[in-house]
Every structure is written in structure tokens, then in C-alpha cells.
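Appendix B. Extra example for self-study. Work through it before the problem class; the solution is given directly after the inputs so you can check yourself.
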Amino acid sequence: MKTIDAFKLNEEELKQEIRNNQDIEVDNCLGQRYLGCALKEGNIKLVGTPGNGLAAYLDGASIYVKGNAQDAVADTMNGGLVAIEGNAGDALSYAMRGGKVYILGNAGYRAGVHMKAYKEKRSLLIIGGCTGSFLGEYLAGGTIIVLGLNCKPGMKLTGYFCANGMYAGKIYLRTDEKPVNLSDKLEFHKLDRDEKEEELRPLLEEYARIFHLNLEEILASDFSVIEADPQKSYKQIYAAV
Amino acid sequence: MNMIASRYRINIRKDECVLCKRCVRECSFGAINFNSEKNTITLTHSKCVDCQRCAALCPREAIFITRNQNTYANNHLYTANTLNEIYRQSATGGVLLSSMGSGIGSVHIYFDHLLLNASQVTNPSIDPLREPMETITFLGRRPRHIERGKDGKLVDNLPPHIELSTPILFSAMSYGAISLNVHKALAKAALRLGTYYNCGEGGLHESLYEYATNTIVQVASGRFGVHERYLNSAAAIEIKIGQGAKPGIGGHLTGTKIIGDVSATRMVPEGIDAISPAPHHDIYSIEDLRQLVLSLKEATSYTKPVIVKVAAVHNIAPIASGIARSGADIIAIDGFRGGTGAAPMRIRDNVGLPIELAIAAVDQRLREEKIRNEISIIAGGGIRNSTDVVKAIALGADAVAIGSAALCALGCHICASCHTGNCAWGIATQRPELTNRLDPEEGADSLVNLVSAWTREIKEIMGGMGINSIEALRGNRLALRAVGLHEKELEILGVKYGGE
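Solution. C-alpha cells for the complete assembly:
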């Protein structure tokens, strides 16, 4: 694996290096935007804090960040893997269609808005800590899991307007507490042992392995799931002229 | 009791009709049926939308549609339409839904109040048949400085741009709103004409990738069918913020229309609704927009211009200024009269600005800020003919986009029933028996004819003015004089009154 120092390159040279090398480690990342944009292959390790728009349109490559990420990570991502050993900013995984995004720490506002799934593409977003408001709004498919690990005491897993407008997909929360002002168009129920084993365990295995977490300990807690209630859609009533 | 009187009457001249039943087969709205017991044609006037399909295909020209002569009490305030809307809403509780662009008469069509200039004595006019006349148009950012290399030769520092043989493109219309055959006709025509069509926000059908050189792909809030190959296949990428028919309103393609290829092209499962949120939830500011513009450029290695499409709204001038500073290369402004496959009628008829005012305001503002060369302007929303094109360019646009007019070339009669999905002309429908009515090759021929005819007329008009290139027409408001407008309108349009 080639190792380069981001301090010694300008942004264009840095992006060029990442595009041209399948396996690369970049040290001293500091706010450089759009790293890994639309990449189809390769294993990229970023040390430091990459800037906004990390892994936008990612199409198959794997990106590991040893540090925090900023806003708009994995925007419209189509495939691949993003793992962030830290926190992520706002608008994480907007309209993501495929691949996996793993965050060890917290995520900001508007995480997982309008994520989707199509055929073999099943977007998966796992957030180890807590999230801000508007998590999973307009969810159209795929899966979001929020674990609430290492959150400050009293902090809730999700903020206001969690899953508003959601119409497909699933959101799992490691709590039995219903999010505040959850829309009455959504179903919320606690997972039983079988559901945890069959649905959650396979989704969390890789996440736990990558971040060296004890999966059994995580799964020992209570989990709940939010799903759209098909009986209560957001249908506007129209009168065709 | 049905309080709503039928809008139209279907009339069949009995003495001309040969009972061939062509009209029965052609009517996709269920207004014309055949009663085999009585061997007669039965009419349900209330279902007629006046799409003219039956009249156009009757071999004996025996059919004509009229307005229902039954009249409500004459009242300027409570017109028949106003009353029908109240009856409809009191019966259903629903939001009024319609389609196409706003055709209401109370908002000026400013194009019709603008007259063009011509040369007489003091400067020579030009005969475009015998003398060169340039309609090639380049859209994209212009470099700020001319650069020369050490050898003194010009350095090509031109940012990515698109080249149009004529300043007319086809507007964004999505697969789902219109049929695949319409997309094919538009793509073939764009290729033959040397211009571009825009696939809209529903993704790009696999069979259309071969027309990539003449395709503009759209990235809307739903991001349907957006992926690396989609972006890199196109000539340019358009970020759709809004459209003239429904500014501020998202989109909703119902699950019943997400079947087969529509599902595959949008990359959403069959039967599940496709929601385009009202805003992009990753764009809440010009700074955020800049991020999307640049990430799209990054994904396409800075080889393609990025267009930002917005509806013409009250603050369009500062919005355009922001877009010019976002890194976008082209701004597409869609006016009040822009078409749509479905929109709440109140929004369509009451929100936004006529494109003429928007072009003038934006061009003026960008000039004042000395950034007009940083961005090109595509104007759309109610461009009906070649003089609308010339007037739009003279007001400050670089090129125009046509949607409704292009659909008219394919048979559309503006019956505004797209939202029903029953389009008898096979345009705004996914019903196979209807989409088969439109042959993509024949459609492309009609589109090529239309745009070629307009281009000939544009050349003739420019020649008359003594102008020999579109470049010289752009923003040339001295080529326009107004009639029937008041002073404030003249000020905003930047146009003198006739005789001044």
C-alpha cells in the first residue's frame, strides 16, 4: 500500500493520487473536499479529517477514515463501503442507493434522508453513536441502524422529526424508547429475540468486526424498529380537472 | 346529482359517419363507445377532454368537438370554470390537479407586446439564403482572460461547454411523465439537429445511452437513476431545483406507474411511489449548491458543464447571481408558463413569473455585477415559435428550451390531461397500446422539421435586422420595442416603447 502525505500535495494532486492508486493511505487529511468521488475500486485509508462531499456517488471502492468526516458523506452513493472511525457531519448518505456506510461515532442532522434500495442494491447506514434531527426522512428503502454507543448521558439516539415522510425501508434503534414526535404514519415496535438474531445480527457483523466491537454485548440490549405503515400513506387527495 | 356541466360536446355528423368505429378505438378517455346491440356510437360528453384525436383520425372528417353551449349565468367574478372548481372540490375535498403550462389570460404574454426591429437605409439588411448567418451557440462559462503561451500562441483555457447548431434545446421531461418513444424521438432529433434533449429526473433508459453526445442528464432531489455511468454518459448535467409549472413543489410518481422499464430506469422497486422531495435535502444554501455542482464536476473529471435549473420566482435575479457564483456553468430558468405532467392547478396558475421578466431581470443583474460571462442562460416556459426565441435572446437569454411546443410537434393538442395517464396521442402515458401510437422515427422527423423551420425564420429575422450571428442578438434590447405596456414593465424589460 502506497502512503502519501496530504500536507505535501495540493488538492488536485491529492485527488489524482487517489484516482490513480488502487490501494493508498493518505496521512494528514485536513478538509480536502470530494475525496473518493465516484470511485469504482480500490482501498483507501484516510488519516485525519477529510472535507465535505467525501465518497459522493461512490461506486464500489472502500474508504476507511481514521478520524472524523464532515458534511455530505456518501451523497448519492451507489456501491462500496465507507467506514469512519469517528463522527460524521450533516446530510450523511443523502439519497444513497447501494453499499454500506459505517460510522463509529455520532452523525449530524439529516442523516440517511431519502436512502433507497433497488434489486441487489440495499443501502445500509450504521451509526455507532447518536444522530441529530431529521434522521431517515423520506426513507424510500434500505436500512439505517443507530446504536447509541458511548453517547453522553441523557443524550437521545435521534432528534426531532425522525423518519418523517418515510415510506419504505427500516430504521433500527438500540433502545426501546420511541423517538420524540414520531409521525403517527409510522409503526414502532420492539424487536423480539428472533428478529434481533435474524434481521440485525447479519447486518451488524461486518460493522462490529471493522471497528473491533463486541457484537454480543451490542445485541444484548433492547432494539426497536421503525417502519412505514402501509395503511397510512401520505397520499394527497387530488381532484383531477 | 352532478353539478358540473361537461366542458365539451362531441358532435358526429350522422350523414358523414360510416360507422367505421375508428373514433371508438382512438378515444382513450372512454368518451366514445359503440353499442353493438343498437349498432350506434354512444357519447359520454363529460369524459371528453378535447384532445382532438378522434377528429384528427376520422377518415370522413365527420367529428367536431365544440364547447358545451349550455351556459351558466353570466358573471365576471363567478365564471363557469370558477364554479366548476368549487363544485369539484366540494364533491371531493381534493387539491385541483392539472397539467401542461398555465394558459390563464390574466397574466401578460409579454412576447406578444414586443415588436422586432429591421434595417432600413442606415444599415444594410442581410439575405440569409445567400450570405453567412451564424446560429451556432456555445453554452458554458467564458474564460476571464485570454492566455498566451511562451510561443505567443493562444492557450485553450475554455471551460467545458456545449455547442448547439441553433439556440434551441428540448426541455427536461422525464421517462414516466412521457413515454420512452417520446424520449427516443427527442434523442434522435437532437442528434440530427446538433442540439440536446434532456432526460429529466427519471433516469436514462438503457437504449438511450447511444445518444449520450446529445443528452443532458438531470440530477433532481430524488436522485433517481443517478450513478457514475449516468453522469459520465451525458454532454452536460443539470441540477433541477425547480420548474416553472410548480415552483417549490416536489414530485410524486405513483407506484402504479413504476412498472417495468420505468422502475428499472429510475432504479426504484416496482409498485413503490417515487417521491422527489420539494427541496434537495443536501442543499439549503448557495454554498450547499456549490458543493453539489463541484461534486458532480469531480465525478465527471471537470469535463462537462453543469446546469442549474430553477423556476422563475420573485427573487430570480439574486438567485441567479448566487447560481453564477456556485460554480455552475449554465442557469436554466423556467417561466410561469412552463409545462408539466402534473401539477396542483392553483400553484401552476399563481406561482412564479413570466419568463420574459425573468430573463430581463437576470441578464440585467448579472451584467451589473459583471458576471454575465461567468454563466450562460437557457430560458424556457412558453416559447411557442421562432419570434419568441428571438425576443427571448434579445432580452438576454443565450438559448431557449422548448417542451410543450416539441410535444405539439408529436401530436399534443394541449388538452392538459397528462396527469390522467390516458394521453390519446401516446405522449404522456405508459399504456403500451397508447405509446405504440407514436413512432420515434416519424416523431423525430417532425421535431427536426419544426426546429429547422424556426431556425430558418430566426435567420430571416436576424438578417432583416442586419445581424449575422446569435452572439450579436443576445441581450440586444435595442432590437425590441414594446406596445401596450406601462413604464414599470418597460423598465424591467429594459425595452423602449414603440416610436421612442
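Self-check: The interface with chain B takes residues 15, 33-34, 37-38, 40, 52-53, 56-57, 59, 71-72, 75-76, 78, 91, 94-95, 97, 110, 113-114, 116-119, 121, 134, 137-138, 140-141, 165, 167-168, 233, 236-241 of chain A (CB under 8 Å). If your reasoning did not lead you there, revisit section 3.
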